[in-house]
Amino acid sequence: MKRLDPETLETDPRFPSGAWTGYFVQAGKHAMDLQLTFRQGVLTGEGRDRVGRFVIKGKYSTLDGKCYWTKRYLGQHDVFYQGYNEGKGIWGVWEIHSWWRGGFHIWPEGMANAEELRLEEEAEPPQVIHEDLETSEPLTPSLTLP
User: Fold this and answer.
1) How far apart are CA 101 and CA 118, in angstroms?
2) Cβ pair 88, 6 in contact under 8 A
3) For 74-100, what is the mean pLDDT?
4) In this structure, are residues 111 and 99 in contact, taking their beta carbons and an 8 Å threshold?
5) 31 and 21 in contact (C-beta within 8 Å)?
6) Long-range contacts (CB closer than 8 Å, 24 or more residues apart) made by 129-137
7) Model pTM score
8) For residue 115, which phi and psi values (nearest 5 degrees)?
9) What pLDDT score was predicted for residue 66?
10) Distance set, CA 101 to CA 12, 42, 73 (Å)
């Protein structure tokens, strides 16, 4: 794995680079483990869940806590995620081809009681944004997964 330059990593405590964990909801909760890098508004990473291995590419904002990304399963399909970080991890919605949707919650590993946390406010699910994400090209992973 590529070595990270700590001087360019995000310093906002809501977006620490490193190991994250959480779940997505689709007829029940399904665990996922991620290795994420937050740098200058760009989110990249890799991970694994019950579907398989994936890579992540997206964006985040320290101004409002909003973030969105594409989760690309290696050799399979893309899933679009959009969420918000209010200091309790990232909460939001995922979508596949406009007809499969669900929720998710991810948080940095080691966050105390993260699975029991609740959002401070509830709102209508955000409209999924697909801008600036390249999803139609074949995937050539640049990261090596275990």
Assistant:
1) 20
2) no
3) 92
4) no
5) yes
6) 129/68, 129/82, 130/80, 132/59, 133/57, 133/58, 133/68, 133/69, 133/70, 133/80, 134/57, 135/70, 135/72, 135/78, 135/80
7) 0.74
8) -70, -25
9) 97
10) 29, 24, 16
